[in-house]
Amino acid sequence: MINNVHQYYTYILTNVTHKVLYVGVTNNLQTRIWEHKQKLFAGFTAKYNCDKLVYFEEYNWIQDAIDREKQLKAGSRQKKIDLINAENPDWNNLSANWYD
């Protein structure tokens, strides 16, 4: 039997001043964060320089990740801040050593 491991991620990015929060979903977190850092796609994260990964969750099913993304996007800014503070109180860049 083949074990198909699915990995999907819901994540939160911010900018250097922590003024902007961006919620996204992907099946390859490392590649997607690199794309944000390189500003490969014009849009919100490129415009507001959101490339600091401060929070993420992992899921086995894409629909679960999408549902969580929608839940986070619908929530208040304070709920996102509380979530980040609970897991990453110093707001460290969780992808800081990924691209050495």
UniProtKB/TrEMBL annotation:
A Pfam family assignment: GIY-YIG
Xref: SUPFAM superfamilies: GIY-YIG endonuclease (SSF82771)
Source species, domain of life: Bacteria
Domain GIY-YIG per the UniProt entry, residue ranges: 6-82
Stated family: Belongs to the UPF0213 family.
Protein name: Nuclease
Organism field: Mucilaginibacter galii
